[in-house]
Amino acid sequence: IIIGNKKLFEKEDIPLENTDNIDNLIFIAIDGNYAGKIEVAEKIKESSFKLMQQLDGIKKIMLTGDNEEKAQIVAEQLNIDKYYFSMLPDEKVYILEEILEETKEGRVAYVGDGINDAPVLARADIGIAMGGLGTDAAIEASDLVIMNDNLEKIKTALDNSNLTNRIVWQ
Question: Which is deepest, 20, 29, 164, 166, by most CB within 10 Å?
Answer without folding.
Answer: 29
